[in-house]
Specification:
two-stranded antiparallel ribbon, Arc Repressor Mutant, subunit A, 8 helices, Four Helix Bundle (Hemerythrin (Met), subunit A), about 70% helix, two-stranded parallel sheet
């Protein structure tokens, strides 16, 4: 990636802007698992001093997207199938199941109604072939479930894993028919309006069972190359 064109940033909140841009590049697959993120190259790319780059990389490390190895540098994290099945997806399911149960108890119809605009956006983007935007609407659907629970702890925990959730929603989406995904989320709303057990089962299928099946079918969790580096 030598000779990359400069991409200067406005002066306001440079640390957050750099973190946001690198995060999106990880989600888009430009920086795959194993990619080394070299500070001097990022400084040149964004036309900034080293300090905001270091701070941005620390933010991304806290989100679980990059990892710092002493004397080696900073690399985009590799999340294995075992990590996903054993930790990330079950934790996400536990948070969203709690949120779903709480939100249904508080206002079942209100929850269902609040999810409809997210599915509408998913459908619109899917039909337009806008995969990234469709996936972001998918993330918004699930965030709405957590918001509807009105639990600061559930939201904080969900926000902690949300960057990694976004990465894998985008990566798995390549093996899904987007209109099928839209229909599954429509069925989720129908299940919420019907009975809580049905809604819990649909949520488990969306969050855990479908990804596990993909992994068992041999879908890779990343596109790692040992030669990847931002240098």
């Amino acid at each position: 990636m030598r000779g990359m064109a400069k991409d200067p940033l406005p002066s306001v909140s440079r640390r957050q802007q750099i973190a946001d841009r690198i995060r999106e590049q990880i989600i888009d697959g430009e920086f795959v698992a194993g990619t080394q993120l070299k500070q001097d190259t990022l400084c040149e790319r964004y036309d900034v001093s080293p300090a905001p780059v270091r701070e941005a990389l620390r933010l991304l490390e806290n989100e679980g997207l990059v990892e710092h190895f002493p004397n080696r540098g900073v690399f985009v994290c590799d999340v294995t199938s075992a990590d996903l099945i054993g930790v990330l997806l079950p934790v996400r399911l536990a948070i969203e199941t709690y949120a779903l149960e709480t939100a249904v108890a508080n206002d079942r119809e209100g929850l269902a109604d609040s999810l409809v605009p997210h599915v509408d956006r998913m459908r619109l983007r899917a039909r337009a072939g806008e995969a990234k935007e469709m996936n972001e609407a998918d993330v918004g659907f699930h965030r709405q479930i957590v918001l509807a629970a009105d639990s600061i702890h559930a939201l904080q925990l969900w926000n902690t894993i949300q960057p990694r959730v976004r990465v894998h929603i985008h990566r798995f989406s390549r093996w899904h028919d987007p209109l099928v995904v839209v229909r599954e989320h429509e069925e989720m709303i129908e299940a919420i309006r019907d009975t809580l057990p049905n809604a819990r089962q649909m949520l488990a299928e969306l969050i855990l069972e479908r990804p596990v099946q993909l992994l068992e079918d041999g879908v890779p969790t990343n596109s790692r190359s040992d030669d990847d580096t931002v240098a």
